Amino acid sequence: MRRGIEALPSPNIWQWPELYELENQAQDVGGDVWRMLSSVADWAARDVVDIGCGAGFHLPRFAATARHVTGVEPHAPLVKLAQNRVAGMPTVEAVLGSAQHLPLPDASVDVAHARTAYFFGPGCEPGLAEADRVLRPGGVLAIVDLDVRHRPYGDWMRGDLPKYDADEVDRFFTRMGFSRQNVETRWRFTDRRSLESVLRIEFSARVADRAVREVPGLEFPVGYRVLTRRKPMGLIVR
């Protein structure tokens, strides 16, 4: 692995990439997050980096209208899966790297996107600085994260993260200059087995059992926070 790559193992996609693929397919079935994202960080005919791209699920969506897309992922087996996914797509690449050490030149992208990856609040300052380095003046860093205040998914998250302070996280991103948009969407699965399997890679056994009981069908609402910060025009990063 390339020197400088730093990452905490992801407890879901690193261990169960096949199940996480089902999760990605179930998420945001109405496209609400994508519509919000495109309204605050339009990537059409622009250069994009997807930070923590995993197996590359979102890369083709960006590539449909972007000029060029780079997926950056710290876990080598996932990089390989992402490369296989975008093979034959000339405007997309997937490379090994981390949020703290993006393998990109200064001022080389217009949109930096991270979805439920690395940027979770205090402690992510190195990644914020690195995103500023690779963004062109006027470029946007867009962070999509789950909203722990939104029920029922947020209740399940807090069941496993009792010390998580949503107010502290909000204050942090406000201090860092981010705007926030809340989005409600739905996760919808094709069968009950897939739904239950996904819940069991996201939560402890105790919380997963609770979630399975509380979802009678194949779908449930999920809240997201879309956080954006635009790099000032003319800002020089040394």
From TrEMBL:
Alphabetical keyword list: Methyltransferase, Transferase
Keyword Magnesium: no
Pfam families: Methyltransf_11
Molecular functions (GO terms): S-adenosylmethionine-dependent methyltransferase activity
InterPro entries in alphabetical order: Methyltransf_11, Methyltransf_Superfamily, SAM-dependent_MTases_sf
Keyword Oxidoreductase: no
Biological processes annotated in GO: methylation
Boundaries of every Methyltransferase type domain copy: 49-143
Protein name: Methyltransferase family protein
Species classification: Bacteria, Bacillati, Actinomycetota, Actinomycetes, Pseudonocardiales
